[in-house]
Amino acid sequence: MQPHDNTMDDSEVRAAFESALIPAPGAGPSSFITRLLGLHPQFDRDTCTIDFTVRGFMLNLQGSLHGGLIGVIFDTCMGRLVRHRISQGKTVEMNIQYLRAVLPGPARCTARLLKRGRTISFVEAQMTDGGGRILAAATSTWTHKEGERLTQQEDAAE
Fold this sequence. Notes:
By secondary structure, the protein is of the alpha+beta class. It has helices at 10-21, 32-36, 67-85, 152-157, and strands at 42-43, 47-54, 90-98, 105-116, 120-129, 134-143.
């Protein structure tokens, strides 16, 4: 892989930062970092999917998505799935396998609940490029209170 020249589009960075400062009305719960990275979770019964675009300001010096940001995206996707299906949880551990460079352009992270226990749950996720090639994979363990479930109001925000 060729070294990246570390230049970025200042206007793209400013626009991303400005839009991340203000949560979108009706968009549900989100953090500054998820808005900055353009992460918008979508749910079906068993999965959480986040389609996003790898942009210049997200790259490391090699020109690929920074490994720490890959971790943030996995943690966000798996955490939102736990919140959606079970309740608010906390990451106990996460293991990431970096298989290929995540290059600029469209990408997707999909999380799936492997097993729900009374207070611990297990989740897996994959990150793919626009062509569906697996770029990274992760597993994680989450803790949550026994019998805890989001209120109907919190659930509706999902």
